[in-house]
Predict the structure.
Amino acid sequence: MRKFSSLPLPAASTGQRHDWTTIKSLLPYLWQWKWRVLLALSCLIAAKLANVAVPIIFKHIVDDLGLDDPGKLMLVPLGLLAAYGGLRFSASLFGELREIIFARVTQRAVRNIALQVFSHLHSLSLRFHLERQTGGLTRDIERGTKAIGSLLSYTLYSILPTLVEILLVLGILVVRYEPSFALITVVTLACYISFTVIVTNWRTHLRREANEIDSAASSRAIDSLLNYETVKYFNNEKWEADRYDVQMQRWETAQVKTQLSLSFLNIGQAFIISIGVALMMWRAAEGVANGSMTVGDIVLVNAFLIQLYIPLNFLGVLYREIRQALTDIERLFALKQQHLEIQDAPDARPLQAAACAVSFDQVHFSYDGQREILHGVSFSIPAGTSLAVVGHSGSGKSTLARLLYRFYDVGTGRVCINGTDIRQLTQTSLRAAIGIVPQDTVLFNDTIFYNIQYGRPTATEDEVYAAARAAQLDSFIQRLPAGYQTQVGERGLKLSGGEKQRVAIARALLKNPPILIFDEATSALDSKTEQAIQEQLDLAALGRTSLIIAHRLSTVMQADQILVLDQGRVVECGSHRALLAAGGQYAQMWALQMQEEAETQA
C-alpha cells in the first residue's frame, strides 16, 4: 500500500490573534459609514420595541374578550386589533429599513478589505509566493471575505436584536410580575449562553483543523490539475487520486468529529431551554390559579417565551458561525498583515526615464540564508549595450535577473542603475523600466491579444499587432480561426512552448522599456524560428541596455560583453572572439556545443 506524506497545513496566522483584535481590525471599515450604522441601529431598536409591544397588546385583547359588557367587548378589541396589526407591520418595516440602510456598509467593507488583501499579496516578495500554495491562498481570501459579510449580518440582524429583545422582556417581567419570572429567565439564559460558549470554544479547534485540511485538499487538487499534462505523461492518475484521497480521509475524520460535537451541543441547548420553559409556564399557571394573574398574563408570558426561545435557540447556531467567521477573518487579516520583505525606502525616488546603465558591485546572495548562490559578483553594462551571461545550470544566471527586478534584495553588495542603488528607487518605476522574456512563460487564461497587450495595457490595437509581427507571431495568429481573440487556456496550455515564448517576446517589446532581460528567450524555439526572432531581438535591443541569459552560445555571439558564471562566481568576461582566443571555460563550452550540433545534424 502506498504511503504519502501529509501536505503541510497553512498556518492560521503568524501569531495567535484574539477575537476582539479581529473585531477591532474590522471596525474602521464600518466607521467610515458611521451615520448609516447609527441609523441602522435606531431602526433595530424601533423594530424590537414594536415586536415586544405586540404580546402586550395581545394580552389586553385576551383580557378584554373576557369582559361581561357586550358594548366594550365589541369596541375595545377593535382598537387593540388595529394597534396589534400596526405594531406587527412596524416591526417588519423597521427591520427591512435596517437592512436597506446597512447593506452598503457591509458590501463596501467586504470590497475594501478584499481589494487591500489582493493588492497586498501582489506587494509580497517572490519568496512568499513560492512558499505558499495558490489554492490555499484563494480559499483563505474567499472564506475571509464571505465571513465578513456573515459576521456583520449575524451581528446586526440576529445577535443585537436578540440582546435588545432580551433586555426589554426582562424589564417588563421585572416591572409587571413577581421576581421569580425574571430570575428563571436570567438563569436559563446564563446557563444556555455559558454552555454554548464553553462547548463552542471546545469545538473551535475541530473547525480550525477541518478548515486547514479543506485548504490542503484544495491545494492538492489544484496543484495536480495545473500539472495535468505531467500527470498524463507519467500515467500517474491513480497516484494523484491516492494522494488526494489521503487529504480527503483526514477531512472526513475531521468532519465526523465536528458533527458529533455539534449534536452534543444541540442536545444540551435543547435540554436547558426545555427546563426554563417548563419552569416559566409552571409559575404562570400557578399565578392564574391563585388569581394573581389573568389568562392574558399567561398568554403574554407564553408569547414572550416563544419570542425569546426561537432567536435564542438560533443564537447557539449564530455563536458557532460567528466564531467560525472570526477564524476565517483572522486568516484573511493575517494575509493582510504579512510582512513586506521588499519595501520602498522612506526616501525612495523614481527612476528617471532615460538611458540606463546597470552594474552589480560585489553582490553576494542566498535564497535561504544557508547556501550562497552568488559570490561577490561584479560587472557593469553601459547604457545602450548588451551583456550576455552564460554558464552551466545552477550557476546563478537567472538569479541576476531576479535581483535586478528586485524580487529579492541582495545579501551584501549593490545593484545599481545609473549609479543609484535600486533599493533607493521606487519599485514601480524600477520595474516599469525593465522588460523581461522569462524562461518559463505563463500566460493568463484569456485571448492572445490580451496577453500581448498586458505588456502595456494602454497600447492601441496597431501597436499590439506591430509587437506580434516583431516577435514573428503574426503569421501564426492569422491562421487561427479566432485570430487574436483565440483563448490560450489555463497558463497558456493551448499554445506550444515556442508560441508562448513568442507571445512573451511580443509583450516585452510592446512595453518598450530602456532595459531588456532575455532569460533563455529562444530556448523553446526551433532553429529556423530562433534565427528569425534573434534578428528581431537584436533590433529591439538597439539603443537599450540588455541582459541576455542564455544556454546556447550561438545566440549571444553578437553581445558586446559575455560573462561566464561558474557556481556563482565570474570566471571570464569579454567579447566572443576574445573569450575564444583565451581558450578558457567559454572556449570549452563553445567547442562542446559545436560538436553536439554537428552530431545532431549528422
Notes: Residues 1-17 have pLDDT under 50 and may be disordered. The CA atoms of residues 363 and 413 lie 4 Å apart. The chain has three domains: 19-336, 344-433+515-602, 440-512.
